Amino acid sequence: MARRARKFVSTVLFLGIVVAGGAWFATKPEPWPAAHWEGLRAPDLSHGEQVFWAGGCTSCHAAPGAQGDAKLVLTGGLPLKSPFGTFHVPNISPDDTAGIGRWTLAQFGDAMTRGVGPDGQHLYPSFPYGSYARLTPKDVNDLFGYIKTLPKSPNVAPPHDLPFPYNIRASLGGWKLLFYSDKPRVPVDQANAKLVRGQYLVEGPGHCGECHTPRNALGGFQTDLWLAGAPNPEGEGQIPNITPGSKTIGDWTEADIANYLETGFTPDFDSAGGSMVEVQQNIAKLPAADREAIAAYLKAVPAR
Fold it and tell me: Which residue, 117, 198, 199, 295, has fewest beta-carbon neighbours within 10 Å?
């Protein structure tokens, strides 16, 4: 009897190890192979700056309330409240100690597009790597080169303040398995270069879906409601619907949307408010053709 019990326990332990090993293998961090970053030329800093503004880097990584040139000091520290706890945005200035000054291109690219930190750990999706996953190696190389030209900051951001079980970083592998994707969110006419560009900007560096799309209980996108509006993650108000079915912008023309993104003024001479102010100011720095492409995409997505 005792021998059977020992055999049963040994079998259960063995199966537990197999299951745990399989789960780890399925959810382990997956950086890009080294070849993904090889063969790139010296960064195009002008293009890197465009990716920088399209990605809204200053909106989260500059010090709260920063204005003018101070917005280019990517000091971090901004608290991002969420249903899962409070995330603190890191310093991504070129500082060697507090920032990313010692990072390699591969480390930066893996963080941006794979959600893998320089230490090989999963990053929390409060950093929108699920959207930045659409960036090409050239985009990443140019952006990294541009960021390295910006001022250094010695500020050390506080650690995330997350309750159990959200503070278990290893669990993020399961989240990625369920929700991480570098595929387009909605179909568009791939023969239409303007729409393709708009989709790239909105779904990729612009990461518009991160705020404008509702999420399920685990924080994954409800993709059938893409850009249909969502509760403000910080608990106050509603992020608006920006599909053609919106009561707010559904009747706007492409020209209306492009003008709003450039000037901040609606067709009714109202102005952007809340967190959209900084988003609009960032997009205003892009070429007019990019704003027109964003407008074309927003008029082409399914109405909700």
Answer: 117
Return the domain boundaries, the chain: 37-179, 193-300
| pTM of the predicted model as reported, rounded to 2 decimal places | 0.89
What are 203-260's pLDDT values in tens digits?
Answer: 999 999 999 999 999 999 999 999 999 988 766 788 999 999 998 888 999 999 999 9
Among the listed residues 272, 247, 262, 246, the one whose alpha carbon sits nearest the alpha carbon of residue 294: 262
Give the residues across from 86 on adjacent strands: 81, 161
What are 40's two structure tokens? Answer: 């790139």
Q: Could you tell me which of 105, 107, 77, 110 has the C-alpha nearest to residue 91?
A: 77
Six token digits for residue 263? 């000037």
What sign does the dihedral 64-233-260-186 (CA atoms) show? positive
Q: How many CA atoms lie within 13 A of 219 on its CB side?
A: 18
